[in-house]
Amino acid sequence: MDSPSDIGVSRRGLLTSGAGFAAVTALPASASNKEPVAPMETPPALPVQLKVNGKPAELTVDTRTTLLDALREHLHLTGTKKGCDHGQCGACTVMVNGRRINSCLSLAVMHEGDSVTTIEGLGTPEDLHPMQAAFVKHDGYQCGYCTPGQICSAVAVLDEIKAGIPSHVAADVAASPAFSEMEIRERMSGNICRCGAYSNIVEAIREAAGRRQA
Amino acid sequence: MKAFHYTRASSPADAAALAAKTPGAKFIAGGTNLLDLMKLEIETPAHLIDVNKLALDRIEETPDGGLRIGALVRNTDLAADKRVRRDYAVLTRAIVAGASGQLRNKATTAGNLLQRTRCPYFYDPNQPCNKRKPGSGCAAIGGFSRQLAVIGTSKACIATYPGDMAIAMRLLDATVETVKPDGATRKIAIADFHRLPGDTPHLDNTLQTGELITAVTLPKPLGGKHFYHKVRDRASYAFALVSVAAVVQKDGTGRVAFGGMAHKPWRVEAAEAALPKGAAATARIAFAGATPTHDNAFKLPLAERTLAAVLSEARG
User: Fold this and answer.
1) CB pairs under 8 A between A and B
2) Does the distance separating the beta carbons of B4 and A102 come in below 8 Å?
3) What pLDDT shows up at residue A19?
4) C-alpha distance from residue A145 to each of A79, A84, A197, A207 (Å)
């Protein structure tokens, strides 16, 4: 056997590697000198039951499936969008058991028995949710890609203020939060709009909040 | 993402025992940091143990006047708890200064303590990183280090601990409660929980294999005025360049801990004795022996000035 050189490649290996290169991918792993990384025989899949927009849904998913991919690819609810897929942009925001989360950073199998509300569950084209109507009225978007996440987030923000959950802009965190533009901007900071429709988004939320208070 | 097996844990002790005997196992709770890292294949667990259904989601008063916070209490719920807002406002302030509303709804108390660094070289699998791959080197040293640590660094790692909540927990002298795979429980002072990198930067904390956090307890309230000032590149939803957690009493004495400066929440008790003398005197002791890089040397005056702003507000 040839002794390996200091860069870990044998002379024979180097001479034959040119010819062998094209065939490498077709070789079984056992033919390689390297210890093969044991691949999982079949990726594990598990059943999960959800309630999505009020309707029961039963699916079997690869454990890697995020809630976002379960909604879009398995249940074909494509209103919820995949932006960054890393919890940085908020396009995938949905409500789970009434609370907004990034559906891209949650596994579907972790949601057994949970109730999920997506943009499709808030309103319909014929019967818009007041927040949807306010976004339309105030032009709270340009391309519209971040909009379902913005609207789900905005609906939850109003609930969070109502529930007395404090925010970073509160002067006194022990006091009940008051509705203000500063509060909207801070609480909506997890939803990025690359078109920069922020001022109209704030106007839309302000109007929807006013309607609800009335 | 690499394929993995998934099991729902039935009790904290069972979860710990299962984690210890299953190769490549990790706990998952909120998942907001772990799944991000799994998508990048920086974390590649072969088995996830879901602890979400364990009944560790309550905040209870302790006999000595403190609070016991279950490991699964979500960041939003901890920040919104009336007792926390009244008696430990620095903790509420730190939590709401971090992440976004969506993430805080999911992230847990224990998971937040275990948050991994945001060093850009840790996040880039094409770069050497001793934290991600022990022995591979550190591309941050000599690289772009603006966000990275200025004190407690080593030749192997200059990463920072990225979180906000833990800075307040360190200030408040919290205790981390755990259960080990043999069912025994353990209490770890928060000061001993996070590690400095040394020559083993892949170890962020002092938990043992399979050990599961069950709660974090706070001693009785300190009184005083509570502050968490966070300086970052945008007004919301960004990691700290520098943060200052402080509790200041009427006589000017108090406590201070810093975020964004080191591999762990940075609190030097000896420096706190200098608080009545002001920010410069305090910072001189807190950051003695600092080893900043060209890129991040600004953090030292920034930390001192942020503390000065806090102390000025405390007097006002």
Assistant:
1) 112
2) no
3) 39
4) 9, 12, 12, 22
B197/B203 Cα distance (integer angstroms): 7
> What pLDDT does A211 receive?
73
With contacts defined as CB-CB under 8 Å, which chain B residues touch A168?
Answer: 93, 96-97, 236
Measured CA to CA, the distance from residue A58 to residue A47 in angstroms comes to 7
Interior angle at CA B135, CA A3 and CA B145, nearest 5: 135
Enumerate domains of chain A plus CATH numbers.
43-121 (3.10.20.30), 123-214 (1.10.150.120)
Residue indicated by tokens 């968490």 = B228
Give contacts of A89 with chain B, Cβ < 8 Å. Answer: none
CB contacts, 8 Å: B5 with chain A: 44, 63
Give A112: exposed, middle or buried? Use CB within 10 Å, 0-12, 13-18, 19+.
middle
For chain B, domain boundaries:
5-50, 225-315
Packed helices A198-213 and A130-138: angle between N→C axes, nearest 10 degrees: 140
Read off the pLDDT of residues A92-126 as tens digits, 9 standing for 90 and up: 999 999 999 999 999 999 999 999 999 999 999 99
What token pair was written down for B248? 């200041």
CA–CA distances in Å: residue A55 to residues A77, A108, A115, A116: 12, 16, 9, 9
Token pair belonging to B95: 């939590």
* Residue B241 in this model has a pLDDT that exceeds 70: yes
| Average pLDDT value for chain B | 98
Please check whether the domain covering B225-315 is classified as CATH 3.40.50.740: no
Per-residue pLDDT tens digits for B49-61: 999 999 999 999 9
Q: Give this prediction's pTM.
A: 0.92
Query: Which residues in chain A are contacts of B235 at CB distance < 8 A?
Result: 186, 189
Helices assigned H by DSSP within chain B = 12-21, 34-39, 75-80, 82-87, 89-96, 101-106, 109-113, 165-171, 269-272, 279-286, 299-315
Provide the shortest C-alpha distance from residue A177 to chain B (in Å): 11
Residue in chain B nearest A84 by alpha carbon:
B36
A206, amino acid identity: R
Q: Which residues of chain A fall below pLDDT 70?
A: 1-39, 212-214
B5-50: CATH topology: 3.30.43
